[in-house]
Amino acid sequence: MRRSRLIDPLKRPQFRRLAISYGVNELGDWMGIVALSVLVFDRTGSALATAGLFLGTKFLPALIAPILVAKVEQPPPRFALPVIYCGEAAAFGALALLAGNGFFLAGVVILAAVDGTLALTGRALTRAVVAALLEPAGELRSGNAVLNVAFTGSAAIGPGIAGLIVAGFGVQSALLLDAASFYVIAAILLTAGSLPQAQADPGRVRDRVGAGLSYIRERAILRRLLFAQGAAFIFFAAVIPIEVIYSKQTLGTGDSGYGLLLASWGVGMVLGSIVFATARRAPLPVLLFFSTLAVGAGYLGLAAAPTLGLACAASVVGGAGNGVQWVSAISAVQELTVAAMQARVMSVLESIGAAMPGVGYLVGGLIATGTSPRTTFLVAGIGVVAIALVAALIMGRKWPDSGEKADIKAIDAEAEIMVELIPVGLVPTARSNSEVVS
Question: Which residues pair with 424 in a beta bridge?
């Protein structure tokens, strides 16, 4: 089969609309995060209340989204996705009302949890539609690269745009604008024409959720990949709560220095998305291994950096790894999953990405409280590197072909350990019990 070019997916009108909606969605998410954070903190003056907001937008949706995905994967995605985004628009419209004189914290958290659940569901279903649209033509890697550029670009500029709008027009106006953006996404997808859909299993929602979890349990490579990604998320996120302290106290910079540090990571993410887009011939195991190491190296560099300039350089390295790592994990999960299970398995990955950082926030905060921000970066860097190396030893090296997805069986770890994340040629392939890589 001819290897697809980066522009090939963009020749498909349906994919163009999906890509535009994906980028606008990410901008809208940042608008909501910034506006709601400012709203809750300004009205309550409590860091605990702000933490409760993030708990509602991350942990609760992570538990509910896989169930909702099993429900919405049955209707045609041309209608299911717009309904989801209209639901998000309605949630932000209600939040805008609460931002006026009717503010009460519980209502904000509940509505934020509703939006978070719909957001995870929409992303999982979008990824499933993209896989159904592009994989038969061998264009999935290229399509994921395009989506990653849209995602990282929006993530790089989203916080700044959101901050300017909140500062210039107020929280309520920002939330109303956010609601409008989701209506725009719904209109874009509703007029996209027929979107491809994998035939979901019949039966009740509970049965389909159970079937999705059983599918993951029975496939060792997929299961281990999800577990490793979840563990990595803990260390990825451990530094987030202490970045402002690290910047202002450890490095002795002001607000501008903190912003520059965050911007450097964003620049790295954009560079990483370009690397993934241009390295489409590189095996996913190679990209996963080295991008994870790059994130760890960035954290170790931040732990040792004596000046803001060197810290920003380390942030670019870590951000570049970040820009490759997540999209490589998504592509790997898609390649390991049959069409009928795409939405459910992607919902598990999205839920892991929403829930596990919360554990990382707690771990990072505890380490920084007991020691210092530099120690937090050091522990996070060592943890990320360790996960990359351990995952390389417990996971298989060969991705199954599309025809093998349905029949791939769990690998007996005592009989054979093949290295997946370490590039081919660096480690010998185990062929018998006597040749197991230790």
Answer: 427
